[in-house]
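Deliverable D5.2: sample structural annotation.
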Amino acid sequence: MALVNVEGTGMVGIRGVDKRIFGVLEYHDVNVALISQAISEHSVTFATSEDQAELAKSVIEEEFRRELKLGHVSSVDIRAPVSIIAAVGDGMVDTTGVAGRFFSSLGGAEINVLAIAQGSSERNISTVVWSSDSTRALRAVHAAFNLSNMTARVGIIGMSEVGISLLRLLEAERDALKSNFDLDIQVCMVCPERGSEEIFSLNNDTESGTQSLTIGAITRVTEDLDETTKTTFADEEQVAVVSKGGLGLCFDTLFRKECTIHAIFDCTNDEASGRYHAGWLRAGIDVITANNRGLSGPKHQREDIKEAEKSNGRQSGVYLRETVVAGGLPIISTLRSLLHSGDKIRRIDGIFTVVKSYVMFRISPPPNVAACSQFDVTSSNGVFEGDMKTSSTAFVGEACSFSQAVREAVHLGLTEDNPALDLNNEYAARVLMALARELGMDEDNETELIKMSSDVLVDIDDNLNFLDLPPYIDEQVQKRVDAANAKGCVLRSIASIDVKSKSVQIRISEVPNHHAFAVSPPGCSCVRFFTRRHERYPLIIQGPSAGADSTASALLAELLQRTRGISTPRSLALIRRGSSGAFLHNKHSNSMNGNNGIL
């Protein structure tokens, strides 16, 4: 299709202009598919087939030769190739918000609208867009009205336990997400590990493709499999392909202009991937990260991410970082809800790191742990299984040495690659930096400054073998544990941000035996918000922050939250009344999708 625009100040208020335009078009058998004219009468725009556009222009110029010479008509222009996107349906009549949803979906998909037409019957809204944008426009409108699934192209950085769990989750839930959210999540790119130059992508990545990377597809191209395994993964044989390029290839592999949503899940704890976050955001790719290195890195990197979030307005990607603080616990979302509702944050403190939580509980448990566990078993009607055993089969309520607690944490997979990062406050300091960012307190703070001003339970050399720590470390720790016990207290590592004093620190504290921090189970986070409204008693969020499955679920929830305004669950969608649909019309195609009665 082509768009022809007749424009001029001399057309305003002059009778017969439209008659002359469309009369000469009729005389020369030029078919008009759409007409658009504003009340200012400054221009008349119409759509016709591209092969008739030059004829239409020439006959109009001949008809208005005198007006063009006098400047009453300034120009007759052609825009091509274009396509017409239309929403059609009886259910649109007297239904508010249809036009808003229609054009919001186009805006969200970065579609430039060239012309608009709507009749007073309210049964049709038509808009003209560039043909290069037509597929993306049609998909966006279909998703907005729940006429088809919206496609989200996603990539996963880091195949750690979290990355593997997320990939399995996306595979398992793909059909359910299509049914309940009208959202088709296609995993189009996987970068397996930090520093890797290999990247997995779809072997047949086309505009109409529906394939998605799976564990089986990746395994099929990376391992020399036996015949049984080859049979198991036979369906994925042609799905995945390996390329070289690493993180630098992520954008080119993931981005497709016809797709509305692009997202990268950062499941690493890698500084290198954190440096790419700002670039991905500027390119319009949402970054859903469990990696706190981006927000806790150097100041210039943090500022770059902040700038990238708003550099292109709504066209910038969104930085989703709920899981950088406490895994699947809603810490950042709660903080934002408090601030957005007018509350004032005075202090946030808590046990943020799973390793510190586990180790401190094991070396300094509160009394009556067994009784509490038994109560939960009895009162929960079997929901709580009472599995309070450690990897060494010891009961968690029985105190152990520091070295044994660290070994158990390593065997349970709770620690970083280097356990010293957890034990020497590296991870906790990075979490505090992420929270400081939300409170506007990150300008004068750095991860290293927080570490230097904070307490450690015992000085530990990064080069030590954490599976066989020297006895003197146990002796030093035990002295502090005994001193706390003598006061009826337990040792806990408490990280805090005090807004008034602008203090950001980590302290080894002697906590009363029955305090919330004392009884918080091993491996769980416990975070308190002291606010103007929660002044007498703090708001407390507590729960397990470890576990690949819970973190993967939280990452997926972030993506669903991001798409909620574009593609809503069917149970919350507007009721479709009568016949409805959306169709694309251009010279070569006329495709329609919707209920019965589509024009």
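Annotation notes: The chain has 24 helices and 21 strands. The radius of gyration is 31 Å.
The annotation will be released with the project's public dataset once the embargo ends.
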